[in-house]
Amino acid sequence: MNIANKVSTFRILIVPFFIACLVYFSLDTVRNNHLRFLALGLFILGVISDAVDGYLARKSKEQSQAGLILDPLGDKLLLMSAFICLHLIKLPVHFPLPVILIVISRDLLILLGAVVIFIVKQKIDVIPTKWGKLTTTFQMLSVIAVLLQWNYSFALWWTAVGFTLISGIDYIQKGFKILYALDTARNHR
Questions:
Q1: Is residue 187 over pLDDT 70?
Q2: In terms of Cα–Cα distance, which of 171, 142, 128 is closest to 80?
Q3: In the chain, what's the furthest Cα-to-Cα distance?
Q4: What is residue 186's predicted lDDT score, i.e. its pLDDT?
Q5: Residue 84 DSSP one-character state
Q6: CA distance 156 to 75
Q7: What is the distance between the alpha carbons of residues 16 and 80, in angstroms, rounded to a whole number?
Q8: How do residues 10-49 score in pLDDT, each as one tens digit?
Q9: Cα(87)–Cα(122) distance, rounded to whole angstroms?
């Protein structure tokens, strides 16, 4: 396991601690307010680790099959837990249900598509697009804004929703192209 994969694994391992901070914070938001900031610190650590593992993998040219799974898995676990928790904890500024449904639906569609492609192709190349990267960036910024209880968080989360929809459509189109190319190649044999 290379260093980049260890950093991705670290990001996955902090998710339960992030969730625990938010759950215990929600039990008494006044007395446990420090836990919201601890959750914020853990989330920012996760964001930094996302940048670091990508940089390390590119710099050392050690992009591995494990890394292609661990990196997006770490992102999705951290982001999904953040969006869900920050919807369920009814802070003055929290994610509305439509935002949660759009973010989760896109990721479930991408996951389902990846499984179908893997079954058909027996391998999958996980290559993030510019739309996917913008989506992740704005989703992360949205979580930070909500954890900080920034009154204008909605501007970030609706921007994230826009990029989520665009990237979802983009990934679905790419998935159909991969499946169509495989079908076409089989028919020409």
A1: no
A2: 142
A3: 68
A4: 64
A5: H
A6: 18
A7: 12
A8: 999 999 999 999 999 999 988 999 999 999 999 999 999 9
A9: 37
| Helix intervals (H) in the chain | 3-27, 33-60, 65-88, 97-121, 130-147, 153-187
For residue 27, with 0-12 CB atoms within 10 Å meaning exposed, 13-18 middle and 19 or more buried, which class applies? exposed
Is 141 strand, coil or helix? helix
Please say whether the beta carbons of 165 and 102 come within 8 A.
yes
Whole-angstrom distance between the N-terminal and C-terminal Cα of the chain?
Answer: 39
Q: Exposed, middle or buried by CB within 10 Å (0-12, 13-18, 19+), for 135?
A: buried
Domains and CATH numbers, the chain: 3-187 (1.20.120)
CB atoms < 10 A from the CB of 15, how many? 20
